[in-house]
Amino acid sequence: MDTLVERANDVRLLVLDVDGVLTDGRLYFTARGEQMKCFHVRDGAGIKQVLNAGLQVAVISGRQSKAVDKRMSELGVTWIRQGVHDKLAALRELLDMLNLTPQAVASVGDDTPDLSLFEASRLAVAVADAHPSVKSRAHFITQASGGQGAVREVCDLLIETRQIEVNRRVHG
């Protein structure tokens, strides 16, 4: 059985759900029917650190939102798929484009539509307030809830495991 550090160290691609992962899962609408999203700044900082460390970051979401496009653009995330009904097919498309295998993937989810991603990922992560069926299939469960810094925890884990590997190689 692989350890969490081993799983995290193999990751080259971080795949994120939006609602319930990058947000708290609640849907906000203005009186004019415009959809609003609330993102946590620490999650954004973590995403930038992961990108700067050379990992790829992708968003695969079942819902469509201009706010997601805007926020991901600000962070430098270029692979964004929204309104996706088959998340596994979207992941396979991305893996083909990047010439990666599922062994290089960490996915973060909160509800049953994310389970197909979990099955195709080296590291499956559930946020603290995820549905029980998602938590039961996760290799790691964050301390923070979705939209409350959970993604930052995952980013920190990925960065820290790389540092552990560097130290191991340097110090034997």
Automatic annotation (TrEMBL):
<dbReference type="InterPro" id="IPR050793">
    <property type="entry name" value="CMP-NeuNAc_synthase"/>
</dbReference>
<dbReference type="InterPro" id="IPR010023">
    <property type="entry name" value="KdsC_fam"/>
</dbReference>
<dbReference type="GO" id="GO:0019143">
    <property type="term" value="F:3-deoxy-manno-octulosonate-8-phosphatase activity"/>
</dbReference>
<comment type="similarity">
    <text>Belongs to the KdsC family.</text>
</comment>
<protein>
    <recommendedName>
        <fullName>3-deoxy-D-manno-octulosonate 8-phosphate phosphatase KdsC</fullName>
        <ecNumber>3.1.3.45</ecNumber>
    </recommendedName>
</protein>
<dbReference type="InterPro" id="IPR036412">
    <property type="entry name" value="HAD-like_sf"/>
</dbReference>
<comment type="subunit">
    <text>Homotetramer.</text>
</comment>
<dbReference type="InterPro" id="IPR023214">
    <property type="entry name" value="HAD_sf"/>
</dbReference>
<comment type="function">
    <text>Catalyzes the hydrolysis of 3-deoxy-D-manno-octulosonate 8-phosphate (KDO 8-P) to 3-deoxy-D-manno-octulosonate (KDO) and inorganic phosphate.</text>
</comment>
<keyword id="KW-0479">Metal-binding</keyword>
<keyword id="KW-0378">Hydrolase</keyword>
<dbReference type="Pfam" id="PF08282">
    <property type="entry name" value="Hydrolase_3"/>
</dbReference>
<keyword id="KW-0448">Lipopolysaccharide biosynthesis</keyword>
<keyword id="KW-0460">Magnesium</keyword>
